[in-house]
Amino acid sequence: MSNQQKQRRQSRHQAVSRQDIEAIIDGNVDKLVAVAKELGTDLKNQKLSTSQIRNIFGTVRRIEAIWPMHGSVPGDAEHGYRELVLLKPKMAYQAKRINNSAVRNLTAILTQAIDCVGSDRTKFQRFAEFFEAILAYHKAAGGS
To answer: How far apart are CA 66 and CA 57, in angstroms?
Structure first.
């Protein structure tokens, strides 16, 4: 791969700004779709496998199941938030273990998104939707 191709690929990841991520987590659905489509396609082009994405996504779904929507059980809300924060080191470990730039890029973006979520369950739901859209666009682009 030429240096020019590497620079273009890196610049696409830098195009996902903190402001874009904050807008997505705050509920901007148009931004969610546009960014997820770009990321999903880009991750497919970087040869990221669906199983590598699903490994992380499965954890997000488990967190979703234990984190109550309306705070009916405060302990569950705290547990859900704790599991979400602990996802960051798990992703960092996976990125290092796999040693693939696509996994590192996805990890960096999702880590920023987790930071925007905080302990807000509604924002977490938007994070989950964003991640699901990335996975869907990755698969639609031919990811395997």
So the answer is: 15
- Higher-confidence residue of 100 and 5: namely 100
Name the residue ranges covered by the structural domains of the chain: 19-140
| Owner of token pair 């905080």 | 118
Tokens of 134: 């990335």
With cut-offs at 50, 70 and 90, classify the pLDDT of residue 10.
Answer: very low
Q: What is the pTM of this model?
A: 0.86
- In total, the chain counts a number of residues equal to 144
Residue range 66-90: average pLDDT?
82
Contact in structure between 21 and 109 (CB atoms under 8 Å):
yes
CB atoms closer than 10 angstroms to residue 18: 11
Alpha helices in 99-141 (DSSP H): 101-117, 121-140
Task: Give the CA distances from residue 117 to residues 96, 129, 134, in Å, rounded to whole numbers and listed in that order.
Answer: 24, 12, 17
